[in-house]
Write a structure and sequence with these properties.
about 15% strand, seven-stranded mixed beta sheet, Glutaredoxin
Length: about 190
């Protein structure tokens, strides 16, 4: 009887540990949270103040985007999940920019400056390599990251035409997968408002 108890206890312990490790990642990466809940009104998006921009003639402000739907993408070019999502974002930009969507990359380095993510030329090369034409802010000090309470790469914040946060999400998605289609539905709903 004791011989069966020890292996059974180990199997239960390993299963419980694995479930704890895997479940939060799957839940976090695959589900968008609607912000805010139905019980409270949408909150105003905070105004970012990044000084360094790529693919823009001047700094892009939230006020300058009034009347447009805005999708913020918090990313860094060394993040595998971030770069895997870029083709889907480029497709959304091509499809919805003419209809009133503005995608903005918030390039937020993960590693210290000696890692190269803070270097403007490296970011510019990444934008070219991934065919990113939408504006990108350099967020080297993580000011916008902290302003929006971001904790993971990649993260997304969808802002409506009145500057209110309507959806937030994290994780990788790909062209034509279920999550990509969910983002299209959200964008189309906000464009129609």
């Amino acid at each position: 009887m004791r011989r069966l108890t020890i292996p059974l206890v180990l199997v239960v312990a390993i299963t419980a540990t694995t479930a704890f490790i895997v479940r939060p990642t799957r839940t976090l990466a695959s589900s968008a949270r609607t912000a805010p809940s139905l019980a409270e009104p949408p909150r105003q998006a905070p105004a970012w103040r990044n000084a360094s921009w790529l693919n823009a003639d001047a700094p892009v402000t939230l006020a300058s985007l009034e009347g447009r739907v805005v999708l913020l993408n918090f990313w860094t070019f060394t993040c595998y999940n971030c770069t895997n999502t870029v083709p889907a974002l480029v497709a959304l930009d091509a499809k919805y920019r003419p209809r009133g969507l503005t995608i903005i990359g918030i390039h937020t380095p993960e590693f210290p400056p000696y890692g190269g993510e803070h270097d403007r030329a490296n970011v510019a090369r990444a934008l070219e390599r991934y065919h990113i034409a939408y504006p990108n802010a350099q967020d080297n000090e993580r000011a916008t990251w902290r302003l929006y309470g971001i904790r993971y790469w990649p993260s997304y914040v969808l802002i409506d035409k009145q500057g209110r946060i309507r959806y937030e999400s994290v994780g990788e998605f790909h062209r034509d997968d279920a999550e990509h289609h969910a983002w299209e539905r959200r964008i189309e709903a906000l464009l129609a408002e």
